């Protein structure tokens, strides 16, 4: 019997009364594994109202208690780590190693949320004027909302609701309609950790449900991760309704390869960062910028990529899993065809990929292009598949200019043995996250995830200190007390409790 995905409203997992349902499929064979409801307006309204009412009491819960909730939660997530990863693999197609990494990176953010007491400390200055002190305090906003993508169904929800709730808010989560099962399990464990009823709500759906959240007057913030067109819509619509919005969008991440770099390290890291997770991550390296003579490394890069093959989640020899849907596969295949038609040299073509036992899966094998020009659609569009492009330049200055001319600014890397080259690159590059001899520079949660330019719409980024700022408002208090008001006399008693 096909599972019907529940809503999570007011502390209760319940079946939706919706008449509109969406198939959730296994990308390895496109079989239907669940039915997802597009929540009704009444159901979304009930979720928001529950969160709104719960906020009134939750914001008064002492910060150390909120911190202990996150400590309990991270321990439960660790205990059920492999179980969550298995569930995650079933709906995303990720191989088990990638799924475990997805869960673990989320756990790291929950651990940071457990540090909320120190993150919410304000500032104080005594005697800003005679007998006058000024101090600031950070207070939660109210009901926050998150709209998450298919590619990291554990990590990205855990970027959002633990930090928001630890800061004293309540949260309404709308997970991707393609991968809803992991979020339900995350909510079950959050409840087991001791989360009060109404602190977290989960509603499902598509654009209609998202637009309802964007316009609702009781929603104070919107957090989003996804494609560029949707991120723009989220940001423009959310801010139009006077909400605080952080919208993480697409990317075209470049790795610059200098002639003095360690060739073996470069090739290994290019392969893993380009085809890992089937290239379906916003921090994947999709462009290798080969400086000077490093274009001579392409045959060895091709040989290394050819050894990687996709497979099912439990295949220990598979390098990655399928693309999320047939639509995603068709898009990747279109861009591969256009790359060939527009003059790029297809060194390795993964278009005709078959995986034994899974004839109906969304498979694309590693694909490598050389002689790529920036005018080609394969370069201009985010491919989101296991495809690596090689662009050739003569100097580091040309490499920097090429990367800065790209509209995206999520992540970039440089591989070099020269400290001066690395410093010049990190200083001049207009990208938010830079790796030096590190292929995918995703920061740990005590820093923030800091995409720039066309990769991010908003001001304050995910997790780290910026997330706490995003989910709180600062109140500044100026106080004055008069010495003449101090009680005097023999009957003065101080009671300590």
Low-confidence stretches: none
From the N-terminal CA to the C-terminal CA, the straight-line distance is 60 Å
Going by CATH, what is the homologous superfamily of the largest domain? Aldehyde Dehydrogenase, Chain A, domain 1
The count of domains is 2
**What strand line-up does the widest sheet have?**
15-16-17-14-13-19-20
* Largest sheet data: 7 strands, mixed
The global form is globular
The secondary-structure class comes to alpha/beta
Per CATH, the architecture of the largest domain is 3-Layer(aba) Sandwich
Number of strands: 23
Mean of residue pLDDT values:
95
Query: The CATH topology of the largest domain is what?
Result: Aldehyde Dehydrogenase, Chain A, domain 1
Radius of gyration: 25 Å
CATH class wording of the largest domain: Alpha Beta
Number of helices: 16
Strand content: 15-25%
Helix percentage: 25-40%
